[in-house]
């Protein structure tokens, strides 16, 4: 228990380790490749949940909503581990990294469990009638616009 208390008391302390740049034989190319790749992965891992949230807000009555939120949390936490890996080249926050990884593991397992549990229900789910209606309405509007364009073209040719 003493180690757990010490861990959280020193969560943001980096005094016990050197920065990653001074550990080993990093060339500038290798180090910057590592850093920029991790930052790019982190960026993608934050954009993807934003898209999921946008989708959830636009689509009402979405079935299996908790699965979407778990995916979002899973992706954000995965991205956070990449961000902290890039930061550790300058600030060796290994305790924070360990905590992020533990949280990522918990949410990852929870997401996998929920997917396994809900997969049979997801497979059985049929497309909603509203979605079909929306698609048909969209097609009708498209056809109406095309008909109007043709009428306008005929009118211009007659005049």
From TrEMBL:
Query: Could you tell me the keywords of this UniProt record?
Result: ATP-binding, Membrane, Metal-binding, Nucleotide-binding, Transferase, Transmembrane, Transmembrane helix
Looking at the keywords, is Acyltransferase present? no
Q: Which is one Pfam family of this protein?
A: ETR1_N
A Gene Ontology molecular function term of the record? ATP binding
Q: Where is the Ethylene receptor 1-like N-terminal domain?
A: 34-124
Q: Does the keyword Transferase apply?
A: yes
Q: Which domain of life is it from?
A: Bacteria
Q: Where exactly are the transmembrane stretches of this chain?
A: 39-56, 68-92, 98-116
Name of this chain's protein: Ethylene receptor 1-like N-terminal domain-containing protein
Protein's organism: Marivirga sericea
């Amino acid at each position: 228990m003493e180690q757990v208390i010490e861990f959280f008391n020193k969560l943001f302390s980096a005094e016990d380790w050197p920065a990653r740049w001074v550990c080993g034989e990093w060339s500038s190319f290798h180090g910057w490749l590592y850093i920029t790749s991790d930052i790019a992965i982190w960026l993608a891992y934050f954009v993807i949940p934003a898209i999921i949230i946008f989708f959830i807000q636009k689509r009402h009555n979405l079935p299996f909503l908790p699965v979407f939120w778990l995916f979002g949390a899973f992706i954000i936490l995965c991205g956070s581990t990449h961000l902290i890996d890039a930061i550790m080249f300058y600030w060796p926050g290994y305790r924070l990294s360990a905590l992020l990884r533990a949280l990522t593991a918990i949410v990852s397992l929870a997401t996998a469990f929920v997917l396994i549990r809900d997969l049979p229900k997801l497979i059985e789910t049929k497309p909603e009638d509203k979605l079909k209606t929306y698609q048909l309405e969209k097609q009708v509007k498209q056809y109406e616009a095309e008909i109007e364009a043709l009428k306008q073209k005929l009118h211009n040719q007659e005049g």
